[in-house]
Write a structure and sequence with these properties.
Elements: E1 2-6, H1 13-26, E2 33-37, H2 43-49, E3 55-59, H3 76-81, E4 86-89, H4 92-96, H5 102-114, E5 118-123, H6 127-131, H7 135-147, E6 159-162, H8 183-200, E7 207-210, H9 219-223, E8 230-233, H10 240-253
Helix pairs in contact: 1-2, 5-7, 7-8
This protein binds 2-phosphoglycolic acid.
2-phosphoglycolic acid is lined by residues 6, 163, 168-169, 211-214, 232-236.
Length: 254
Amino acid sequence: MYVFANWKMYLDYTESVALASALKNNVKNSKLQLAVFPSALAFAGVKAELEESAVSVGAQNVYWVDRGGYTGEVSAAMYRGLDARYALVGHSERRHVFGETNHDVRQKLEAILAAGLNPVICVGETLKEREAGKTKDVLEIQLRAALAGLVWPSGMRLIIAYEPVWAISRGVGLEAAVPPCGAAAAEACQSDIVDFAGGLLPGVIPAVLYGGSVRPGTVSDYLTQAHSSGVLVGAAATTLASWQNICAEAERLA
Ligand code: PGA
């Protein structure tokens, strides 16, 4: 079972390293697959802090060219150089705030695989798409663009996060600002994702995570669904107490 923490741009360098240090001291042997995704700025500091801990470290975003004149970007190969284990790709904030296309996601995914990092492929529909009855189509289009014709490396886990764009939180305490995605609605999409992925990469069994306003009080609802292999948590994973409560629930169910 995966419990992944996407710190987004919630924490500055000092806060990121301090939280990593607290995690190291508080998270000992776990049955869970744990990872944090700090900002590019804090990556090296967090990685150094979590060396030899049960918590892996991943990149929130990568660029697909290894190096060159790409102001502001960090490549998958450069993250590999710091022993990143995972990389998010296709996160809805990348798609919808920064305009990443399905084609960009594919290029990033290929670069992540070439660098030997384990991608976490994020897919999900907007509220408009859901209300138009297009959820299944959107998931299929995003997965097809990412995975069609790909030779999946043996030994690499296919991890897909279902993250309905409309259910992603604005921060802890701001739960009322977005409609919740119930666990049953998430499960319906997770089941579709397993079917689509199976058709695109026969024989590769995906681990499907849910992300979108997961909180300590709701995490068990998501984790107990038939097609759930874990959660990708944003805001609620940016403080030690909240993260520990989420992990304790997951540990109980693992
Ligand atoms: P959230 O973020 O838990 O704050 O909704 C999840 C994500 O976007 O990965």
